[in-house]
C-alpha cells in the first residue's frame, strides 16, 4: 500500500537534540582516521612510483611530500595511525566483553586519545 503522507512527515530531530558522547566521537574518529590512512598511503605509493619513474618526476613528488603541507599531512597521518591502532586495541578489549561499563568505556576513550597524542609526539621525537 502506498504511503500518502510520505512528503508531509517531519524529519527526525535526533541531530538537534542528541549530545555527542566521548564513545560516539571516538567511534566516528576511528572511521575518519581509517579513511585518512588510505589517502595517506596513496600519497606514499605515489612517492614510491615517482622514485621508480624518473629523477624529474621524483623531484616533483618529493617536493610535495617534503613541503610544509606534506609534513603536516605526514604528521597527521602518523597521529591517525597511532589513533586507529589504539582504537582497534580498544575494540579487541570490548570483543572479549571486558570494560563495557560506561566509566571504563570513558577511561578507554581518553586513553586512546591521550595515548595517540603521546605516541605521535614520542615517534616524532625519536625520528
Write the layout of secondary structure elements.
Layout (H helix, E strand, L loop, with lengths): L13 H4 L4 H32 L1 H11 L2 H28 L6 H25 L1
Describe the structure.
The termini are far apart. The model has no long low-confidence stretch (mean pLDDT 90). This protein has one domain (21-126): 3 helical TM bundles of succinate and fumarate reductases (Up-down Bundle), CATH 1.20.1300. It is mainly alpha-helical and 127 residues long. It has five helices and no strands.
- The assigned CATH architecture is Up-down Bundle
* Helix-strand topology string: HHHHH
| Share of helical residues | over 70%
CATH class: Mainly Alpha
Largest sheet: none
Contiguous low-pLDDT stretches (5 residues minimum) are none
Distance between the termini: 65 Å
pLDDT averaged residue by residue:
90
User: What is the SS-derived class?
Assistant: mainly alpha
**CATH level-4 homologous superfamily:** Fumarate reductase/succinate dehydrogenase, transmembrane subunit
Overall number of domains: 1
Number of helix segments?
A: 5
Q: How many strands in all?
A: 0
The Cα radius of gyration reads 21 Å
Shape: flat
Structural descriptors:
127 residues; 3 helical TM bundles of succinate and fumarate reductases; mainly alpha; single chain
Summarize the structure.
This protein is mainly alpha-helical.
Amino acid at each position: 500500500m502506498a504511503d500518502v503522507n510520505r512528503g508531509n512527515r517531519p524529519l527526525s530531530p535526533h541531530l538537534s537534540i542528541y549530545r555527542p558522547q566521548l564513545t560516539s566521537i571516538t567511534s566516528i574518529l576511528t572511521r575518519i582516521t581509517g579513511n585518512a590512512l588510505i589517502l595517506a598511503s596513496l600519497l606514499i605509493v605515489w612517492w614510491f612510483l615517482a622514485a621508480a619513474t624518473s629523477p624529474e618526476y621524483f623531484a616533483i613528488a618529493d617536493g610535495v611530500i617534503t613541503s610544509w603541507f606534506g609534513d603536516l599531512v605526514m604528521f597527521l597521518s602518523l597521529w591517525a595511525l597511532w589513533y586507529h591502532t589504539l582504537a582497534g586495541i580498544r575494540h579487541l578489549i570490548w570483543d572479549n566483553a571486558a570494560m563495557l561499563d560506561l566509566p571504563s568505556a570513558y577511561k578507554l576513550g581518553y586513553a586512546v586519545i591521550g595515548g595517540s597524542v603521546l605516541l605521535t609526539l614520542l615517534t616524532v621525537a625519536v625520528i
